[in-house]
Write a structure and sequence with these properties.
heterodimer, A: about 280 residues, alpha/beta, Rossmann fold, six-stranded parallel sheet, 6 strands, about 65% helix, about 10% strand, B: about 210 residues, mainly alpha, 8 helices, about 0% strand, extended
């Protein structure tokens, strides 16, 4: 059997199995969005891989490559403390609490709050979303308590500003100009306000650490901020800072998924070269 | 219990919201709509708390001597004015509320947005200094793109716009997709961590 014939037969078998796994009856079509089967398969694979990576991560040590943006957190907080200035933490205007990016940002905020409390440096948290404010108040209060300084916690510094995008940008700019923070963390979902905030932070002499899930705003952060967390670095940050093996296990799961995606792409390209569109057709 | 109950609620609703995307059955879609309604209700309640928080904070600032007093006074005046105009004369076409919105708030927002043009220039100036090899690469790429986007690029060579298109459509898109895949996987892993109760920082708790 030639190589081409072998590949064709193999892909035909895989295709037949995949098609057989799809629900076809009228009952299934009424209950299940058949056209979303590839997404369901992807979700199941991601969940299994991440959970296995997390469950096998107990009592293991992981190497995580150094992330300059996260290593700079201590320096930025130390600088603010020496200047007698507060630090400002912004999760951006684009997200809400249901967004994983905001969750990841709050996990970083937890560590930043604990460290800033240990240094005795106030933390300012202006937000456009009252639900995020409520979650951030709990997160920061817990960080201050963990550092043994609950007395330093000030609920007034964690505040709802406005839901208007540019009103929010103007209010936060004003806060920066008046309070002159020594460090500004821009971690979350940002839209058009990203560059306005980053440049104002630069103009008041603050160290800026940025990171977002928006590739457009990421390019602004790369040129405007001192340190930028690119792509998945923002989501890996909480594990990196806390050193928690379970959270780092999830980061390892992400790496395994990346390998699976690259392997799928390579196999898809090879199959495409042999005239078979099993993977590309199924994904489309 | 303070942490366990929210984690259980979050896990149950996280699984439900993921499952409803794949299930088209009417009872599930009806439940999904109900969940969305409840989300709106919770958000409105939180918004009321947020507005109260803003008013109290501005009142405190107005009571304290200092430069913030003026800004707090203006903010409180603005809030009171819009509430009076809105409830007193409505928010429809031709109302005073809409007039203030169109002639005060909208121009102020436009002003803040227009700052972006200056910030782009200042950020580009700082970003495009050849401090190291990566910065030099950035400058080279930016110069090529700029040349290809202005008429002089085509006057230099007809290949310049084609090179620019290639840079934008091949290496730039490849890098962007790599970042997007990383972000997608990061979001998925974070969502799984939250649903499984591993990530609890949003509840103000790190203990499991």
């Amino acid at each position: 059997m030639s190589l081409t014939g072998g590949v064709k037969r193999l892909t035909a078998i895989i295709g037949a199995v995949a098609l057989a796994a799809m629900p076809k009856t009228a009952f299934a079509a009424d209950w299940f969005a058949v056209e979303r089967t590839p997404e369901l398969v992807a979700v199941i694979i991601c969940t299994i891989v991440v959970l296995i990576a997390v469950l096998t991560a107990r009592n293991r040590k992981f190497y995580v490559r150094p992330l300059p943006g996260l290593e700079a957190i201590d320096d930025a907080l130390g600088r603010s403390t020496e200047m007698g200035a507060p630090v400002m933490y912004i999760t951006g205007w684009g997200g809400d609490l249901a967004r994983p990016t905001t969750m990841a940002s709050l996990a970083i905020l937890s560590s930043v709050a604990e460290k800033s409390a240990a240094f005795g440096t106030p933390i300012l948290f202006p937000s456009h979303d009252p639900v995020i404010v409520s979650a951030a108040q709990d997160t920061i209060r817990e960080g201050y308590t963990s550092a043994g300084r609950p007395d330093l916690y000030r609920a007034d510094d964690i505040t709802f500003v406005t839901q208007s995008q540019l009103g929010y940008a103007a209010a936060v700019d004003g806060m920066m100009a008046r309070r002159k923070p020594g460090a500004v963390f821009l971690l979350g979902t940002f839209e058009g306000e990203a560059l306005i905030l980053a440049e104002t932070a630069h103009s008041v002499g603050a160290v800026q650490i940025g990171g977002t899930d928006s590739t457009i705003q990421l390019s602004f952060f790369l040129v405007a901020c001192d340190y930028t967390l690119i792509g998945e670095e923002l989501f890996a940050a909480s594990g990196y800072i806390s050193g928690d093996p379970l959270i780092l296990g999830a980061v390892r799961g992400q790496d395994i998924l990346k390998i699976i995606i690259v392997a799928t792409l390579v196999i898809g390209v090879v199959l495409g070269l042999f005239g078979n569109d099993l993977i590309s057709g199924w994904l489309n | 219990m303070r942490t366990r109950l929210p984690v259980i609620i979050c896990g149950v609703f996280g699984v439900f919201m993921a499952a409803q995307y794949f299930i088209t059955a009417e009872p599930v879609t009806a439940m999904y709509r109900a969940v969305l309604d409840w989300m709106q209700i919770i958000f409105v309640c939180a918004l009321l708390v947020g507005i109260l928080n803003v008013i109290l904070r501005q009142l405190k600032s107005a009571a304290r001597p200092g430069p913030d007093r003026v800004y707090a006074g203006i903010a409180l005046f603005g809030i009171a004015l819009m509430v009076v105009l809105g409830f007193g004369w409505g928010i429809g076409r031709g109302s005073a509320f809409l007039w203030v919105f169109n002639n005060v708030q909208a121009p102020m927002q436009t002003t803040v947005f227009s700052l972006l043009a200056f910030y782009v220039a200042s950020a580009a100036y700082r970003g495009f200094r050849a401090r190291h090899f990566e910065s030099a690469l950035l400058i080279a790429a930016a110069l090529i793109i700029l040349l290809g986007r202005v008429p002089i690029g085509e006057m230099i060579s007809s290949h310049v716009p084609a090179v620019v298109s290639w840079v934008l459509n091949v290496p730039a898109v490849a890098a962007k997709r790599a970042i997007l895949i990383g972000i997608g996987l990061g979001m998925t892993a974070t969502a799984i961590k939250v649903i499984a109760g591993l990530e609890r920082a949003y509840l103000g708790s790190r203990t499991r």
